[in-house]
Design goal:
Layout (H helix, E strand, L loop, with lengths): L2 E9 L2 H12 L5 E5 L4 E8 L2 E8 L5 H9 L2 E8 L3 H10 L10 E2 L4 E6 L8 E7 L4
Parallel strand pairs: 1-4, 5-8
Antiparallel strand pairs: 1-5, 2-3, 3-4, 6-7, 7-8
């Protein structure tokens, strides 16, 4: 794993939270995106080398809606950038970690993603992600 790619924060209202984080971080949201496969709308902020992703549920059945219902708004996951997501998934699986999918999915911000079950990581949902390379 190369570095923390971003911190994901679950929010109830994306537009209100965009305003809040623009003030808090003193920077503009650089991208919003809908990830239909995960039933979320996202917004991204960059401060220095660090990124923050806000996640708003678009369905009551989404993982974000269930997270907010159970725990309230707050940190949802920590994402780590990897060079080869398939190799990293294989490595994690061989180390005994439970992955939440058998293959990577297209995520937000031009990434392929996979999540590690929080039961295996002291209650923290871990995302591994790889930049999608365009030829």
């Amino acid at each position: 794993m190369n570095k923390i790619e971003h911190i994901g924060i679950a929010v109830k209202e994306l537009n209100a939270s965009i305003d809040l984080y623009q003030k808090l971080l003193n920077t503009d949201c650089y991208k919003t995106e809908q990830v239909t496969s995960e039933f979320v709308n996202t917004a991204f902020f960059k401060t220095g080398d660090n990124k923050v992703e806000l996640l708003e549920a678009t369905s009551a059945d989404s993982a974000i809606a269930k997270f907010i219902e159970k725990k309230g708004e707050g940190i949802h996951h920590v994402a780590f950038l990897v060079d080869d997501i398939l190799a990293e998934m294989e490595r994690l699986h061989s180390e005994g970690f439970v992955l939440l999918s058998d293959s990577p999915k297209k995520g937000a911000d031009n990434k392929m993603v996979c999540f590690v079950h929080p039961k295996d990581t002291n209650g923290v949902l871990i995302e591994i992600c790889q930049e999608i390379k365009w030829i």
